[in-house]
UniProtKB/TrEMBL annotation:
It comes from the Bacteria. PANTHER family: L-THREONINE 3-DEHYDROGENASE. It comes from Elusimicrobium minutum (strain Pei191). Keywords: Metal-binding, Oxidoreductase, Zinc. InterPro entries: ADH-like_C, ADH-like_N, ER, GroES-like_sf, NAD(P)-bd_dom_sf, Zn_alcohol_dh. Residues 12-343 form the Enoyl reductase (ER) domain. This is Putative threonine dehydrogenase.
């Protein structure tokens, strides 16, 4: 089969023939329909940051995918040939303290598909059956590869109720754009967005943001509080960018006893005014990783099937997998003129 394979400790990958995966007794063989590029795929592609320490060579990466089950392991239950699935990329053990206390998203023995094990930038992939999300029909087929990242935004936004609250979304990459639409669909009084790319500012408006600011604007904190309608700040901050300046801004923008959701990943350690911005304000800081398995998936499917959200416009580019260089160049465009980028084998 054809796959995007990391073969050398340098930038780039090869589109080449690799062996068809042999499934284990608890796995499914899935024929990939679509797969999408995550921001975490960029360090793998460029072989920078954490990637050289984590990624073995040769390696097929990619963890946002959907497809048709073509073979089932003898110990799998609930799946049969022809089923169409999306994939939960976080492979949980089911046995540790976290898994046995409904915290599978932070499993002590977590393995991530396409980062720790062979992934889905390929024609076929071996998927643990416990990570398959079976679709009842084809209604969501065209967006099924982005349900994994959409679930991140569902978890980040709705870890607590947002109905009637002001929500400040920092960073309007796909995750931030998902979050804007989710917050509006779930009754947020007002959604304020922060984004520097004019392209993504327009997308934020399309997703329902009520006010949009650039990080370079003067008196930014003052403008955010004014837009919220409350001089003490916003009720909820969804920090989706990971930029240190955005983190510090968000902590100052959230009102006393408000909620700060930390999702974006800074590239290095940072300094914070811990006492004044967290302790004395009495705010709640929620760290978010992955999705609540499978609570986030059930909530997400309900929002999608009810028509409350439609993330399809966030998919701005689709490429055949053989055109991967164009796809990754689009993702890495410094002007950020893209939303979600999808590959078709």
């Amino acid at each position: 089969m054809k796959a995007l394979c990391k073969t050398k400790p340098e930038k780039g990958v090869e589109y080449k023939d690799v062996d068809l995966p042999k499934i284990k007794d608890d796995e499914l063989l899935v024929k990939i329909y679509k797969t999408s590029i995550c921001g975490s795929d960029i360090p793998v592609y460029n072989y920078t940051g954490w990637a050289p320490r984590r990624i073995p060579l040769p390696f097929v990466f990619g963890h946002e995918l959907c497809g048709e089950v073509v073979e089932t392991g003898k110990n799998t239950k609930g799946f049969e040939k022809g089923d169409f699935i999306s994939v939960e990329s976080h492979v949980f053990c089911g046995l540790c303290y976290q898994c046995r206390n409904d915290q599978r998203h932070v499993c002590s023995n977590m393995v991530v598909l396409g980062l720790d094990t062979q992934g889905g930038f390929s024609e076929y992939a071996a998927i643990p059956a416990r990570c398959g999300w079976k679709h009842s029909d084809n209604k969501l087929k065209e967006i099924a590869s982005i349900m994994e990242p959409l679930g991140n935004a569902v978890f980040a936004t709705l870890v607590e109720d947002v109905a009637g609250k002001t929500v400040f979304v920092e960073g309007c990459g796909p995750q931030g754009l998902f979050a804007i639409e989710i917050a509006k669909a779930c009754g947020a009084q007002k959604v304020i967005a922060l984004e520097g790319s004019p392209y993504r500012q327009k997308m934020a408006e399309q997703m329902g943001a009520d006010a949009i600011f650039s990080p370079t604007e003067e008196k930014l904190l003052e403008k955010i509080k004014k837009a919220s309608g409350d001089p003490s700040g916003v009720d909820v901050v969804l920090e989706m960018s990971g930029h240190p300046d955005a983190v510090r801004l968000g902590l100052k923008a959230v009102k006393p006893a408000g909620r700060f959701t930390a999702f974006g990943l800074p590239g290095s350690e940072m300094t914070l005014d811990y006492s004044n911005d967290i302790v004395f304000k009495g705010i709640k800081v929620e760290g978010i990783t992955g999705r609540q398995i499978y609570k986030s998936w059930h909530v997400m499917e309900g929002l999608l099937r009810s028509g409350k959200i439609n993330p399809a416009p966030i998919i701005t580019h689709t490429f055949e997998m053989k055109d991967y260089e164009k796809a990754f160049a689009t993702m890495m465009d410094p002007e950020r003129k893209c939303g979600k980028v999808v590959l078709i084998p």
